[in-house]
Specification:
single chain, alpha+beta, Creatine Amidinohydrolase, Chain A, domain 1, binds glycine, binds manganese (II) ion
């Protein structure tokens, strides 16, 4: 299946915008290292999101350098990457090499990454600020400090050493938070694939299958449609397992009469999708399951209605909480007035997480949730999840027909100019639609 890819010129424009925000100095941004799983086997390679956001370059062993313009010199974009290597390419496949990378990814200069330690100190000389991300990888931190010290060692020759290291993520997080129309197109395509995976899961679920068989349907659908990896480890949780928020074992047998909670989303061209659906393993909700399911769905509807420009980040969460807390009171799960339950946070026995997060290249994406101590306002181009839930463990204080019901309903929502758009709306979620699809 053909999917949309962001043109390389868009990455160049992002670098230019980032350099404008820097105003002065040099940014040095490495991609992620390859990671060994065991002995000679590696984890599937995933580039660093910040590096990829500014380069579109997916090979490992690469470092991006951006030098802001000065009175004397124009802005410069430099890529260090693996050199061409006939022998290695026979074993591991094509690599661009500096020459082709320069053309294809619109860099001003490119060098073999083996020259990084030699060239970087010359680029840091006479720069006042280094933009990089410290505290993320200690070997990287030490390398940056070594380069700085190498420049300091030359100060008697008249070279000026950088005065400070600034976190490049402060600028980049704000840029990543507002998605361009191209990014939205990729996220929509990722969402469409995940929708199909959830539909397939609903259609193939039957009592006595195992959770991993349903996980296989999800991964198969992602791959079949061109999304090679899940954006995070899929949660396929039958019955009581759904009450373990980060359950990823996915090894249990599915029982008729239980619900199945699936939290799964693919990554496509570096962008995540993140959907949760919960449905009855035998295709029919019981009365108690219906009560809780409809409550969570009502909470989600109320929360999504709050997603619009100008509303605060926390408004969807507050809306979901009010609906859930009132529902818990009505169903006899919590006691007292709505205000009292909200005040005491007694609802946390059944709903203990927040209602969403930013979504983008990372499933829990970059971007601050508060600014100057207050929840930030939603703006057109922000993408977030809305994912209320209810998790009821076996407990003497709870009516037994509610035991082991774990439900979450999660959609991906973009803030538009005047309202919102649900990217994952096509995944069935009303009781009627789910029961019909599962017939
Ligand atoms: N799938 C991770 C989350 O929902 O936050
Ligand atoms: Mn989520
Ligand atoms: Mn999720």
């Amino acid at each position: 299946m053909q999917t949309f890819t962001i043109p390389t010129q868009s990455y160049l424009k992002r670098r230019q915008l980032f350099a404008q925000h820097m105003q002065t100095g040099i940014a040095v941004i490495p991609t992620a290292p390859e990671r060994i799983r065991n002995r000679d086997a590696h984890y599937p390679y995933r580039f660093d999101s910040y590096f990829y956001y500014l380069s579109g370059f997916t090979e490992p062993e690469a470092v991006l350098v951006i030098v802001a313009k000065t009175d004397k010199a124009p802005e410069k974009h430099i890529l260090f990457c693996r050199a061409k290597d006939k022998e290695r390419e026979i074993w591991d496949g094509y690599r661009y090499g500096p020459e082709a990378a320069k053309e294809v990814f619109s860099f001003d200069e490119t060098y073999p990454v083996t020259q990084l330690d030699e060239i970087l100190p010359t680029l840091l000389a006479n720069q006042t600020v280094i933009y990089t991300a410290l505290g993320h990888d200690s070997s990287w931190d030490q390398r940056v400090i070594r380069w700085m010290n190498q420049v300091r060692d030359q100060i008697r020759t008249g070279v000026m050493a950088p005065e400070r290291i600034t976190d490049c993520r402060v600028i980049l997080d704000e840029m990543r938070l507002i998605k361009s129309s191209e990014e939205l197109q990729v996220i929509q395509e990722a969402a469409n694939i995940s929708v199909q995976a959830h539909q397939c899961a609903m259609q193939t679920t039957k009592p006595d299958k195992y959770e991993y068989e349903i996980e296989a349907e999800l991964l198969y659908t992602f791959n079949r449609l061109g999304a090679r990896f899940p954006a995070y480890t899929s949660i396929v949780a039958g019955g009581a397992n759904a009450c373990v928020l980060h359950y990823v074992e996915n090894t249990a047998k599915l029982k008729s009469g239980d619900l199945l909670l699936i939290d799964a989303g693919c990554e496509l061209h570096g962008y995540a999708s993140d959907i949760t659906r919960t449905f009855p393993i035998n295709g029919k909700f019981s009365a108690a399951q219906k009560d809780i399911y409809q409550l969570v769905l009502n909470a989600q509807t109320a929360a999504i209605a709050q997603v619009k420009p100008g509303n605060l980040w926390n408004d969807p969460h507050q809306a979901a909480l009010r609906v859930l807390a009132q529902g818990f009171i009505d169903l006899g799960l919590c006691h007292g007035s709505l205000d009292a339950v909200l005040e005491s946070e007694d609802y946390k026995r059944f709903y203990m997480h927040r209602t969403g997060h930013w979504l983008g290249m990372d499933v829990h994406d970059a971007g601050q949730y508060k600014q100057y101590g207050a929840w930030r306002a939603l703006q057109s181009g922000m993408v977030l999840t809305v994912e209320p839930g209810c998790y009821i463990r076996a407990d003497d204080k709870v009516a037994e027909h509610f035991w082991n019901i774990g439900i979450r309903i999660e959609d991906d929502v973009v803030v538009t100019a005047s309202d919102h758009h649900i990217l994952t709306a096509a995944a069935p979620k009303t009781i009627a639609d789910i029961e019909e699809l599962m017939q």
